[in-house]
Amino acid sequence: MRIKLLPLFTMLMVLAIPAGFLQLAVAEKPNVIVIMADDLGYGDVSCYGATSLTTPNIDRLSAEGLRFTSGYCSASTCTPTRYSLLTGTYAFRGERTGIAPPNAPAIIKPGTDTVASLLQRAGYATAVIGKWHLGLGGEDGPDWNGQLKPGPLEIGFDTCFLLPTTNDRVPQVYVHDHRVPNLDPADPLWVGRQKPSPDHPTGLTHRDTLKMDWSHGHNSTIHNGISRIGFYTGGHAARFRDEDLADKWVEKSVAFIEQHQDEPFFLFFSSHDIHVPRMPHERFQGKTSLGFRGDAIIELDWCVGEVMKTLDRLNLAENTLVVFCSDNGPVLDDGYKDGAIEQIGDHRAAGQYSGGKYSVYEGGTRTPLITRWKGRIKPGVSDEVVCTIDLAASLAALTEQSLPNDFFLDSFNVIDALLGKDGAQGRDHLVQQDNGAAGTYGMRAGQWKLHRYGKKTARNVVVETQLANTSVPPFQLFNLDDDPAETSNVIEQHPDVAERLKKQLDNLIEQGRSRPAS
Q1: Domain check: are 332 and 448 in the same one?
Q2: Whole-prediction pTM value?
Q3: Is 246 in the same domain as 336?
Q4: pLDDT tens digit string along 135-177?
Q5: How many helices, marked H, and strands, marked E, lie in the chain?
Q6: What positions does the domain Sulfatase N-terminal occupy (predicted)?
Q7: If we measure between CA atoms, which residue out of 7, 107, 88, 23 comes closest to residue 410?
Q8: Do 51 and 343 touch, CB atoms closer than 8 A?
Q9: Is 394 in the same domain as 457?
Q10: CB of 267 within 8 A of CB of 258?
């Protein structure tokens, strides 16, 4: 009699379990959306202390998730950070990982395991939408009028819709999978380093026609009233308006989410906001007191809101891990006269931290980093050290994928910290780099931060004017607990700590990997 009653008892127990718990129990492979901002500083959003503008959608993400006070990217410029996020390997270990030029070949070669290929093997549909800036094509560079491969589809993405370089570099066209859409064969696209014929205006020859003037280095081919880095001609039917980029990323991202709502998906939403040229859509222009830089921040916030609304509409929020981050810290004047300096007021783009883009001060790599998984992550604030380079190993652990020994050399499994589990710990050390060309590094281990300079100046283009191209000693040491702004070099007071960090940094660079081989 008891045997016959057992199935009925079991059914009653199952019915008594809350529906949300059942949904969590079967959600072994949550959807994953990584939203990466571009040049967004620690202090640029209101949940991290900004008061000159409000970012309600990013704030909601924070209120419903976990806000990290020690969230990092691995480099203070875009290409190396994106390389490290996808490959789980410090960019200084790779080739051509500095800021990629317009005609750069694919930096991540076919056959390289990436976070996308890991999740692809786990049964995920995968997409990257937005800024790429990791090169396209073989060793001769991209064939803009033909097939643009290898690219994202050769390293684990099922589909892509890209800004191929970064928008202050030519060309201003999209790339869908392997081709430039809407390209007219009768008007071929040419991209090169040599100056084209005189009938193609540049920021030098036609400066008075620009709708946004350049301040340094962005004075080559003009498109949409803005001069760029590099030269190109043709492809007019395929060109976009700068003002429409954010709308296009949202359009394509929403379509991908809708298409794959019934299966696990991984979306890398790679925003171009708030990188220069800052030319937000007209409906955002003039909406802040900070000029176009501030306006671009609220455009970014709108994008986050549209993604969240899509998850809510499709009832996917409780089965989706959202990671919000930035590729590096802030910069004000990065080549255009867009009011970023003149209208900054009391706004502190890097918050309490010094430096920004191009530097190894904390402001260069410590950025907003938020995780949200409704019903799984308890809302709160975490002081654990986590980095975008760790997404690969962490998502591999979450989806029960093994890490191959030859790849993801510096990615650590910090999934418990990202999910806010009690007692979970983040990284105990982190190497930070600038663009990588000069061998300049930051080395954080606990409360201590070592700077090692491969050049005599600390480049930091007009974020903190007192640090811009200033002379620096070969090494500096800071106690971040006492001096988070890195204003007091204490290397003479703590030579033993400095020597320990020097050796640790040298070993990490020389041994070729941080993560122990499994």
Answers
A1: no
A2: 0.93
A3: yes
A4: 999 999 999 999 999 999 999 999 999 999 999 999 999 999 9
A5: 11, 19
A6: 30-399
A7: 88
A8: no
A9: no
A10: no
**253, 389: one domain:** yes
Separation between Cα atoms, residue 130 and residue 176, nearest integer Å: 11
Beta-carbon contacts of residue 171 (< 8 Å; ≥ 6 apart): 102, 144, 164, 165, 189, 191, 232, 235, 239
With b for 16 or more beta-carbon neighbours within 10 A and e for fewer, the 277-299 pattern comes to bbbbbeebbeebebbbbbbbbbb
406 and 436, same domain (yes or no):
no
Q: What is the CATH number of the domain that holds 441?
A: 3.30.1120.10
Claim to verify: residue 197 and residue 323 sit in the same structural domain: yes
Range of the domain at 136: 27-418
Identify the helix (H) or strand (E) that includes residue 427: none
Q: Which of 396, 400, 262, 373 is nearest to 308 (CA)?
A: 373
- Coil, helix or strand for 317? helix
Instruction: Find out whether the peptide bond into 150 is cis, omega within 30 degrees of 0.
Output: yes
Chain segment 464-497, per-residue pLDDT in tens:
455 556 677 899 999 999 999 999 999 999 999 9
Q: Note the Cα 115 to chain centre separation in Å.
A: 14
CATH number, position 385: 3.40.720.10
CA distance 495 to 491: 6
Structure-token match 């070949």, residue found: 105
Confidence check: pLDDT of 87 > 90: yes
Give the count of domains, the chain: 2
Are 371 and 477 contained in the same domain?
no
State the greatest distance between any 2 C-alpha atoms of the chain, in Å, as a whole number. Answer: 95
Q: Are residues 414 and 504 in the same domain?
A: no
How far from chain centre, in Å, is Cα 189?
28
* HSE of 338, CA atoms in CB hemisphere, 13 A: 26
- Angle, CA 17 vertex, CA 16 and CA 18 arms, to 5°: 115
